[in-house]
Design a protein that fits this description.
Bound molecules: ligand K1U, zinc ion
Mean pLDDT: 98
Oligomer: single chain
Order of helices and strands: HEEEEEEEHH
Strand order of the largest sheet: 1-2-3-6-7
Number of strands: 7
Structural class: alpha+beta
Number of helices: 3
Distance between the termini: 24 Å
């Protein structure tokens, strides 16, 4: 089932999410719903707080090319355990901040641990767009948005645009 994506500013997007302890069928269904919502948007990642669920769950699939095999990943309690000194600049977007993009600098390579949908503990090294995306999604679990890396004036400008968008959508 497709879920509604919250738009910034929303207090739920600023909260630190709780770790998942028991992997239930309800959580697996939630993860499937998040993948459906992400692909439909379309996007390359989605974090549970973006649909109003304050638990540490993210999904991502950074395979963008048509015809390439998709690689959906479901991560419960993801954690960056090591980051490269080398950084990467990427023009990021966010499904909770539609049509706004800005350059963000992050570590180029990260090692991430997580629990998958089968309850297995996993670890993998991510590079390039995958590394950017997984860091962006983990930030969501800590109440942080990509605009929090920008200068206050630019952040304020984007926030005002989003407030206007929300007012217009409420009227429609
Ligand atoms: O978390 C989110 O809001 C999803 C976001 C993830 C992300 C994008 C760019 C850099 C870091 C993290 C998005 O998916 S925005 C949409 C987007 O980037 C995209 C959409 C369709 C095709 C390719 C990319
Ligand atoms: Zn986002």
């Amino acid at each position: 089932m497709k879920r509604t994506i919250l738009i910034h500013p929303d207090p739920r997007l600023k909260k630190v999410c709780a770790p998942v302890s028991d992997l239930t069928d309800a959580l697996r269904t939630l993860a499937d719903d998040m993948l459906e919502t992400m692909y439909d948007a379309p996007g390359i990642g989605l974090a549970a707080p973006q649909i109003g669920v304050l638990e540490r769950l993210i999904v991502l699939d950074c395979v963008k090319e048509e015809g390439e095999t998709p690689r959906p990943l479901i991560m419960f309690n993801p954690q960056v355990i090591a980051s490269s000194e080398e950084t990467n600049v990427y023009e990021e977007g966010c499904l909770s901040i539609p049509d706004q993009y800005a350059e963000v600098t992050r570590p180029k390579v990260v090692d991430v641990t997580w629990m998958d949908e089968k309850g297995n503990q996993r670890q993998e090294t991510f590079d390039g767009l995958w590394a950017t995306c997984v860091q962006h999604e983990i930030d969501h679990l800590n109440g942080k948005l990509f605009i929090d890396y920008l200068k206050p004036l630019k952040r304020q400008m984007i926030t005002r645009k989003m407030q206007k968008l929300k007012r217009e959508r409420a009227r429609a």
